[in-house]
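User: As part of a screening pipeline, I want to sanity-check one entry by hand. Below is the sequence and the SMILES for NAP. Please return the complex as structure tokens so I can compare it with the automated output.
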Amino acid sequence: MDRVALGKTGLQVSPAGLGCGGHSRLGMRNGDASVAEGVIQRALDLGINFFDTARAYGTEEVLGKIVRQCRDEVVISTKTVFQDRDGHYMPAERLVASLEKSLKRMHLDYVDIFSFHGVTPEHLDHCLHAYVPVFQKEVRKGKIRHLGITESFRQDPTHEMLKAAVPTGVFDVVMVGFNFLNPGARDEVFPLCEKHGVATQIMHAVRRALSNQEVLLETVRQLVESGEVSTLDVNVDDPLDFLNAHASVESVTEAAYRFCRHEPGVSVVLNGTGSVAHLEQNVAAINSDRLPESLLSRLDQAFGSVRSVSGD
Ligand SMILES: NC(=O)c1ccc[n+]([C@@H]2O[C@H](COP(=O)([O-])OP(=O)(O)OC[C@H]3O[C@@H](n4cnc5c(N)ncnc54)[C@H](OP(=O)(O)O)[C@@H]3O)[C@@H](O)[C@H]2O)c1
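Assistant: Here is the complex for your manual check:
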């Protein structure tokens, strides 16, 4: 697989990344790590060197078990939440303890990217003032190579948090929601990231709406009801019929990953799966060509101005 520059970090990464969270959590929802081990090993065999996990996903241990054998060849991104169960901010020391636990669980001396997880606009100031200075010390100690931040695409589908966070220059890598049902990051986030040399990890390329026809139908029904999508542009009974009918497209999911891969400003497209077969399809999609112009314009005509959904 190709390698692309991860912003200004100096790291070279595969354009496909393995997401170890999302709804699939590498197939570990029932706690069985054997499927996850197979998915991670296959990802390495296919040339993936970028892995995103989080303490909250419960996949750090299995990821560490496989990748520590090739530590110098992989880029590991993990994260910490910053609120307790009651919604109170946790003290910075607890977040540092979370980093230590992540390192211990993965048996690693450092992580390449450490992010604040699912930050919404109202929490950004607290992250910047209460946590960032503390974590910059962890960077200096060598426990973290680069600081990152991830948005909550469902709660913040117009990327208000990232629009404020990227210009601070504090974060080298951000995680942003992007898919053809809500391509708003194209105008709102990617140009800012390019200006500031910030790398992007894409989440929600597929999520539920582009892997489950019922969720798609419900999402499009809501968009038609809110007036964001016109029935002149989509068939509400089969909204992506034109994609499925196109000779160059294998499936909606395939088109969704290809769509993200070729977008200027995208560094790594995460795919989250608990299936080796799906992983293989997704890597083939991300390695494949840009979608034909005719399909890109059709998608743009139908969904180009949508800003309210995440695809979840
Ligand atoms: N705020 C945050 O920090 C945050 C939030 C969300 C996600 N993330 C990160 O982003 C990663 C990606 O998450 P995502 O949920 O956005 O992932 P995604 O890759 O957009 O979608 C994953 C969903 O699509 C399905 N799928 C994947 N490949 C498929 C295929 N070839 N055919 C049919 N269905 C397929 C998966 O089910 P199967 O298991 O059946 O394949 C899963 O339900 C996560 O793993 C996590 O690392 C971070």
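Points to compare against the pipeline: The beta strands are 4-5, 12-13, 16-19, 50-52, 75-80, 111-119, 144-151, 173-177, 199-203, 268-272. The two ends are 29 Å apart (CA to CA).
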